[in-house]
Amino acid sequence: MSGLEGALSHDERRDRKSDVENSEDERRRTKIGSFKKKALNASTKLTHSLKKRGRRKIDCRFPSVSIEDIRDAEEERAVNAFRQELIAKDLLPVRHDEYHTMLRFLKARKFDMEKTIQMWSEMLRWRIEFGADTILEDFEFTEWSQVLRHYPQGYHGVDKEGRPVYIERLSHVEPDKLMQITTIDRYIKYHVQEFELALHQKFPACSIASKRHIGSTTTVLDAHGVGLGSYNKSVAELLTIMQKIDGNYYPEVLGTKYQSKLLEVIDSSQLPVFLGGSCTCSDVGGCLNSNKGPWNDVEIMKGISSDASTAESGSDVDYLSSPTGSRKTGCSRLAPVHEEDT
Description:
With 342 residues, the protein is α/β, with parallel strands linked by helices. Helices cover 49% and strands 11% of the residues. The protein has helices at 3-7, 10-50, 73-88, 99-108, 113-130, 135-138, 144-150, 175-181, 184-210, 233-249, 262-265, 298-305, 318-321, and strands at 55-61, 66-72, 153-158, 164-168, 217-221, 254-257, 336-340.
């Protein structure tokens, strides 16, 4: 200890320490403020440039694959304005700063900015309370194989546009047996985990396989003769909770197709026999047990897990997407490589 330090009183040392901490806090605030300013300025540039355009073809690049994404100029202006509002209100965590995520929320509230911000804010709060951000690592649905026997469901292939196909046979649910195997809370956690897997693995894998942006699922519900009255109280409550979660926190992700139209949107080889297709997946115990799709391709998954910061881009707003870290999925940056006017 120097003579000067030794001569300082306890209060003086405390005040000096406080000054250092305050200085560090100020540097952090300055850094955050600088990022916000850059983000807002870049968003403004994009807004002005979009006024001259009709539609844009966005080329989002994984390490070795170019992904086509056609964006509507009006929608892009709305997303950009929404992003500015979220940044200004400290409501845009890096992991959620993604064009199509924000667009889904805007569509869910018919592009009403105030209502969309409220919906977004509630989503962020729910994710923290529920633990959705870490559920892929934190939760294991060990009873899955037993649940499948009494609630047949699963992903099976892709439709003709490259979207993952999800099938539920609601007419084959056995409510009493299901509730003996799992609980409502555990099944809800599994349900949310499946959404997260779709967002972080299945959609990116399908995007790489089809070389176009994929951000939704074709869902086939085999619900012949089924209503909530067909189930016991516990299962009816389960379905109600799932519907609320789907609509409020994962909007615009699912699209329902009906059996009369199935072969128009899904190739026969991708559709199980029980839905009029030709697939049986006999080698793995049935189609709903297969989970077959591009997300099981080793090479594709290697591309998804690679550092997304290798994406090529010439955009003025690249740094908006991921200022402090890289995404493992989706298009990590806004990367306009080619533009089309309509």
